[in-house]
Amino acid sequence: MAKMTEIRWHGRGGQGAKTASLLLADAAFMAGKYVQSFPEYGPERSGAPITAYNRISDERCTIHSNIYDPDYSVVVDETLLASVDVTAGLKEGGALIVNSEKHPEELRPLLKGYTGRIYTVDAGAISRKYLGRYFPNTPMLAAVVAVSGILDAESFLSDMEESYRHKFATKPQVVEGNLKCLAEAMQEVKKHE
Amino acid sequence: MSIKDRLSGNEAVATAMRQINPDVFAMFPITPSTEIPQYFAQYVADGRVDTEFICVESEHSSMSACIGAEAAGCRAVTATSSAGLSYMNEVLFCAASLRLPVVLAVSCRALTGPININHDYSDSMAERDSGFIQIYAENNQEVYDNYLQAHRIGEHEGVRLPVMICQDGFITSHALENIELEEDEAVKAFVGEYCPENYLLKQENPLAVGPYGTSPYYMEARVAQAEAMKKAKEVILEVAADFEKNFGRHYGFFEEYRMEDAEIALVIMGSSAGTAKAAVDELREQGVKAGLVKVRVFRPFPAEELAKALSGCSSVAVMDKSEGFSAHGGPLFADTAASLINAPRRPLMINIVYGLGGRDFTVSQAKRVFARLENIARTKETGPVYTHLGQRDDREEVQ
Known about the structure:
The complex is a heterodimer. Chain A is α/β, with parallel strands linked by helices. Chain A has one domain (4-188): Pyruvate-ferredoxin Oxidoreductase, domain 3. Helix content of chain A is 36%, strand content 20%. Chain A contains six helices and six strands, in the order E-H-E-E-E-E-H-E-H-H-H-H. The longest helix of chain A has 16 residues, at 173-188. Chain A is globular. Chain A starts with a strand and ends in a 5-residue tail after the last helix. In chain A, 47% of the residues are buried. Chain B folds into two domains: 3-247, Rossmann fold (3-Layer(aba) Sandwich), CATH 3.40.50.970; 254-394, 3-Layer(aba) Sandwich (Rossmann fold). Chain B is built from twelve helices and 15 strands. The longest helix of chain B has 33 residues, at 215-247. Chain B is globular and about 70 Å long. The chains are: A alpha/beta, B alpha/beta.
């Protein structure tokens, strides 16, 4: 089978982890990839930990199970590090990407002996700066694209621009803010490399 | 020209419905099929369909409204899941025996209890004797394609039966994947208009719908209905052939995956078949002659064809994603085993109940089942015939 990238998203109900996974699938679809984006539903309530998944590949993937050995694990809410085993099964050579203002090494003690790569991006601050509200999923989406390299950065940004112009046709003023979120998160996530 | 897009299974069904533009959609929401009427309501609001969209107060009423509309000569659709389907139970039998080709989209979900919103086939399997045709899908593409074929199958003059288009709740209903859609006009041309020769409000030939059937007549009506279900087998293949001619994608009663020379095989349905295909591929690379048969059409049950497909195997595991409480295995196993009962040569068979209430089914679980089948083929001993796979704490039914 051709190379497939598997991504697991950890968030809390209402924070948009599922939406981020849908947006990533959208972006990968526009880049000509085969995509899967699916949530894992438990007891649905606002604030409860939720998981969403992406598979991205050059051929259609027929597997419809959850992802247990992801290439990337993305944590949209830092407080989950204390309660959810976010690095479970994470592949060697993969990476953990966390929405946090902290340096990656400050998070390592919370990660039960995890020795792999850690990236952080202050998605909350970026979103507040450009959108005036807490929408961490847009910067986190950009962070995943930057770290994983699964999509060409420039085409990703132009595809997203097109997608936002379509999605926000009735409120074009938010397009620029979202694009700035993406661009800054892509820079920011790499700063501790 | 197909249109490349990405949609969830629910949106794929809603899109097919929009393209077909049925006369009536009677709706009552329930997870995980709620998005189907939700998307459709948007199409109504946007003026993209001119369907009579009726919001009723229960699933018993949504199916009843569909029955009324169909009896009046309309094309009527609805969607449901789980307890909603159970609540329709009484009127499902009415739709089928009145020979009204309602098309019902089911995003399959477990039945209570314990209460659960996730996928298995306990809802649709409980209605297997309702007289509905049942067609199952592996992914969003298949549920879309099955839906496009449904009306033509059910409305065929030799069939006149309602159709359930089933997909896996959440697993495909809420999963966004690539899909090839067909142009609206091509879909409309393929599906055609519904022009029943007789209906309730036809002035020239008024008829009674649903009269009492006394003992001297009841049985003939039931036999005619049974004959229609047999006839549906032919029509399903005819429609599939025309679908392939128009849109290029092939469908049959089931899909045989690497079965040419398979010695061990699974009989399986829905999205799990896709997961199991990855296991088959891995085993084939190791030289193991593994294959699988994915059952698409469960009612009518393709008994002769399935028996033929399995006759060359040494051992077969029938995978049931619902518990029938027969103490003797699930519904797919019962029908598969019955298919082979008079076959001159038949495999040793086991039944595995798995994936209940959304319990995840994985490639490694599929490989464990194949390992059991290899052992059975070698020793000619089945061990326990009816077991449950994937329980908590790695409890294994058979080591």
